């Protein structure tokens, strides 16, 4: 299993993350996006209304790299942050059945190569990173 059960449980409660890509000119882009974990492929799938026309989609098509972060504040008193960062190989997928009719048929699919998580598992002390 790529993700731990605690990471999957956390990701299932979240609706937005931030996708980082690099353009052909080396300029970084960071975009808020909706997502879902795809249990069939073990990937993070990024959807959107017109995904195929976006800079992030073209960046992924050009270099196949992305990082994605989902995080939140579980509490401010006491201060408790939690999150998951996924770094990996990304693909620009066309002609994919969207999860809802208002989303496009293009998605960005991230195949995790490194996962870093913090605060999502009560048994975990601090930040934990691993290559997958």
TrEMBL record:
UniProt keyword annotations, A-Z: Oxidoreductase
Highest taxon of the lineage: Bacteria
Domain Pyridoxamine 5'-phosphate oxidase N-terminal intervals: 5-98
Protein's UniProt keywords contain Transcription: no
InterPro entries attached to this UniProt entry: F420H2_bilvrd_red/Heme_oxyg, MSMEG_5819/OxyR, Pyridox_Oxase_N, Split_barrel_FMN-bd
Region (Disordered): 22-41
Keyword field contains Oxidoreductase: yes
SUPFAM superfamilies xref list: FMN-binding split barrel
The protein, known as: Pyridoxamine 5'-phosphate oxidase family protein
Naturally occurring in which organism (per UniProt): Streptosporangium lutulentum
Organismal lineage: Bacteria, Bacillati, Actinomycetota, Actinomycetes, Streptosporangiales
């Amino acid at each position: 299993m790529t993700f731990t059960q605690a990471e999957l449980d956390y990701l299932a409660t979240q609706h937005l993350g931030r996708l980082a890509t690099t353009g052909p000119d080396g300029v970084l882009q960071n975009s808020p996006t909706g997502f879902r974990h795809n249990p069939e492929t073990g990937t993070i799938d990024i959807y959107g209304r017109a995904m195929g026309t976006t800079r992030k989609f073209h960046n992924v098509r050009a270099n196949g790299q992305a990082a994605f972060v989902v995080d939140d504040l579980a509490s401010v008193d006491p201060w408790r942050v939690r999150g998951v960062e996924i770094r990996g190989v990304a693909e620009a997928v066309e002609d994919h059945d969207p999860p809802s009719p208002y989303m496009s048929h293009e998605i960005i699919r991230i195949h995790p190569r490194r996962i870093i998580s913090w605060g999502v598992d009560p048994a975990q002390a601090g930040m934990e990173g691993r290559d997958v």
